[in-house]
Each structure stands twice: as structure tokens, then as C-alpha cells.
Amino acid sequence: MRWIFYFSLLIRTFAANNRVCSKCKFYVPAIYNEKYDIGSYLGRCSKFTEVDKSSQSVVYRFAAKARCNEFECGSEGKYFANDTSGGENTIGLV
């Protein structure tokens, strides 16, 4: 249960910054049952990808992991780019 508290603090820290992942053009929202957004903490980042070794498919990294890794986006959001589409990102569903 303690990890939930620390994770929520981590999310609040990122939300206080102007560079919020959910406002970035690389952000892919986590969608459940093709219509319910289940929260920005499960969203993914299309800027950083991994290749699944078993299926050889491309998997987007969790946005929270990219923000925790200083070699990727980091806590300051190095690769943040404003979403100018005016709405939902159209990259695809996770």
C-alpha cells in the first residue's frame, strides 16, 4: 500500500510541472474497452520504444518510466513537444 502513496506523489510532482506527459504529442493514452481513459499514469510514450523479444513487435514505454529515467525524458521533460492537434492523440490505442 505504501507504494501507491509514493507513486501518487510522483505523479503530482510531474503534474506540477508545465511539461505534463498527457499534454505532449508523443503521449498515447491508456484506453480500456475502447472507450474509457483509465488515467495518465498508465499512458505510454511513443518517443521511446522497446522491441518485444518474443513477438518482435514494438511496445511503447510507460510515460512514467520515461520521466523517471534521466537518459530518456527525465524529470524535466527534455523531449516534451506541445500537442498541437487540439485534442486526443491519434497514434493509436495501447
From TrEMBL:
Entry protein name: Uncharacterized protein
Annotated organism of origin: viral metagenome
